[in-house]
Design a protein that fits this description.
Blueprint (H helix, E strand, L loop, with lengths): L1 H14 L3 H19 L8 E6 L5 H9 L3 E7 L2 H10 L3 E4 L14 E7 L2 H4 L1 H11 E12 L5 H10 L5 H17 L6 H10 L2 E15 L2 H10 L11 H11 L7 E14 L4
Parallel strand pairs: 1-2, 1-4, 2-3, 4-5
Antiparallel strand pairs: 5-7, 6-7
Length: 274
Amino acid sequence: MSKINDTYDKTISKSYDCSLNQEIFSVTRSSCLEQIKEIYDKYQPIKTLDLGVGDGQYIEKLSKYYTNIEAHGIDSSSEMLKKALYKESFNGVKGKIEESGKYFKHRYFDLINAHFICCYVGLDEIFKLSDNLLNKDGVISLCTSTHDSWSKIQAHMKNHQGSNNTIRKLLFKYTNYISYNNNQSPRSHEEIVSNAESHDYSMIMCKKCTIRQTLHSVDEALAFFIKGSWGAHSYRLPYWMLQLLTKHAFSDIEFPFTDNHKISICTFKKNREI
């Protein structure tokens, strides 16, 4: 994931607070917290771990509500971790999410937050990590985009695969291959449920969000899909190719352009004692 880390350190960390990002975060962070409020009392001691802590806004939100929280977080991007630690005091670790077991106590946590990390880590890895890090009554708060998001854009890109423009045709065929092999986001909400069940986790609560988002120009599309951290960078393509891809994808689209971003927000608990 070194290329992803580099992208976050040099590009995404500088524009993570953009308005299109915050529109999504505002909805999803509030929904995640509302689910946790149903499980843990405000004054109950909670030990929580944020996998992929990002800019720390969710840990900050949790810490303001829960007065007896013990917060930990891990992120592979040093720049994002700096942003997080600037906002809130917690035990922050720079490291790979997949190696969280090396840095934190075995079966120690009441709550593990896995928000928007599925595209890098995958559902299987999240549930395996949770088996090792959650205590017997602990829960997972999962929030993720699914591959059935941005259906208009996906259909538009698929049409380009039959283009008479050889460069455009090859570009989109290659991107389609890369996206399905590198981006590990679940294909749909049903895949999340199925994967959880295969790891013997039950869904306690669930909310499926469809956020209609409007892009007003090619430049805004570039900012959102590349600098805004939504999807394109997880293809692990060179930055110049991502720019070329985005420009081609939106070259003959009429702006303003509106599409649906689908997000699943779920809380899970192990069916049996871990």
